[in-house]
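> forwarded from #structure-qc
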């Protein structure tokens, strides 16, 4: 059976067309990019004064549409037609482009025109994870249990180089090496990490949000170790001076607002006092947050305070229980302890704010985690006591004033 529908394309002009997920994307002589269903129902029309006459169109695996116009401009358009950006505005040799192709791994765009073909290594960001429950005719086998995944079953996948490793939803959380990168994250972060998250059903979305909000399952960590500051000077608390836009959080932990070129950062780190001086200087131990991450942290203040109160109560209950039992675990490894229960908040894919008990104290840990297969802490971070966290809260308005001052 053949289905036909009317378009305003013109065979005398160079136009492009591609089909993706049962949708037809095509260009028109009116300098438009259109999307229609297979039965001819128009889904959207995109037109912009930034566009010349489109001549070729192609879809990336990340649901990003690329199209080429006669003004030697390569455009990117989201599959819903709402987000448009320009990737390239000049080619090396091609002056009159007429066609383009994309490599299998989406990393290379080949642009043809006249006697030349330009090869552009222009990477378009692809999301590392993918979720889907859409029926598929392709046979998919779970990389965890090795059994087949039903075509309409909810499944999670990891993009690795040129392929996707698919898992049953339950198998992903038990067998996937990268599962902890989706632990302790909120809905906004999931949308940044998981392709297809916005399009799944509300029940599946709620299920994924619940599983992703739990803390990562980390095995063991060293305890009792203290970072040594390789600087000649004092780490002892006492009288010390600070430069402008630096706010003291006590015990030589400070928060500084800095500007590097046009980028603003809020840096929370350990300071030291150089020998023979009174002005404290920063060490490398700490973390710098961009404005977006700082704003997220600011919005989390109440939730973090609740987490501190909950952890303090849990710690007291455990102490009472320990006093009653008055016994020790003889099988516990010397110098190591089980990783405590974290209450986690997400600043970005790799950055988390964790509230947990360290020994007999509660700490607020702002840290970047590694990209390795095992979800582990990196040295890039800072651990604050409740008093230091309180000082940071009291300085929020001053920090924001410094940000506004430096941005003007």
């Amino acid at each position: 059976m053949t289905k036909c529908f009317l378009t305003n394309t013109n065979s005398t002009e160079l136009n492009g067309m591609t089909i993706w997920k049962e949708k037809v994307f095509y260009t028109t002589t009116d300098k438009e990019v259109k999307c229609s269903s297979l039965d001819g129902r128009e889904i959207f029309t995109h037109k912009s004064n930034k566009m010349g006459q489109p001549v070729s169109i192609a879809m990336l695996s990340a649901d990003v549409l690329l199209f080429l116009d006669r003004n030697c401009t390569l455009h990117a358009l989201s599959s819903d037609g709402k987000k448009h950006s320009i990737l390239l505005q000049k080619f090396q040799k091609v002056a009159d482009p007429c066609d383009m192709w994309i490599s299998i791994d989406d990393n290379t765009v080949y642009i043809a025109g006249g006697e030349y073909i330009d090869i552009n290594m222009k990477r378009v960001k692809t999301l590392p994870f993918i979720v889907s429950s859409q029926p598929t005719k392709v046979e998919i086998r779970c990389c965890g249990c090795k059994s087949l995944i039903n075509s309409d079953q909810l499944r999670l996948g990891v993009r690795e180089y040129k392929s996707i490793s698919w898992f049953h939803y339950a198998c992903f959380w038990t067998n996937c090496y990268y599962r902890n990168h989706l632990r302790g994250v909120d809905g906004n972060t999931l949308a940044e990490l998981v392709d297809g998250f916005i399009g799944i059903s509300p029940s599946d979305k709620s299920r994924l949000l619940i599983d992703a909000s739990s803390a990562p399952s980390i095995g063991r960590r060293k305890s009792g170790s203290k970072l040594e500051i390789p600087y000649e000077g004092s780490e002892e608390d006492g009288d010390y001076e600070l430069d402008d836009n630096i706010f003291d959080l006590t015990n030589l932990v400070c928060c500084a607002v800095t500007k590097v070129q046009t980028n603003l950062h809020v840096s929370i780190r350990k300071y030291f006092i150089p020998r023979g001086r009174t002005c404290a200087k920063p060490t490398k131990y700490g973390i710098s947050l961009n404005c977006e991450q700082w704003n997220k942290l600011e919005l989390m203040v109440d939730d973090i305070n609740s987490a501190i109160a909950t952890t303090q109560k849990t710690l007291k209950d455990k102490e009472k229980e320990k006093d009653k039992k008055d016994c020790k675990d003889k099988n516990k490894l010397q110098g190591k302890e089980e990783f405590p229960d974290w209450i986690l908040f997400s600043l970005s894919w790799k950055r988390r704010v964790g509230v947990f008990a360290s020994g007999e104290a509660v700490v607020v840990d702002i840290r970047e985690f590694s990209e390795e297969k095992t979800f582990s802490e990196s040295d890039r971070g800072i651990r604050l006591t409740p008093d230091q966290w309180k000082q940071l809260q009291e300085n929020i308005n001053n920090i924001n004033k410094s940000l506004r001052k430096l941005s003007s």
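QC bot note: The first strand starts at residue 17 and ends at 20. The helical segments are 169-175, 187-193, 202-212, 291-299, 301-325, 386-394, 396-407.
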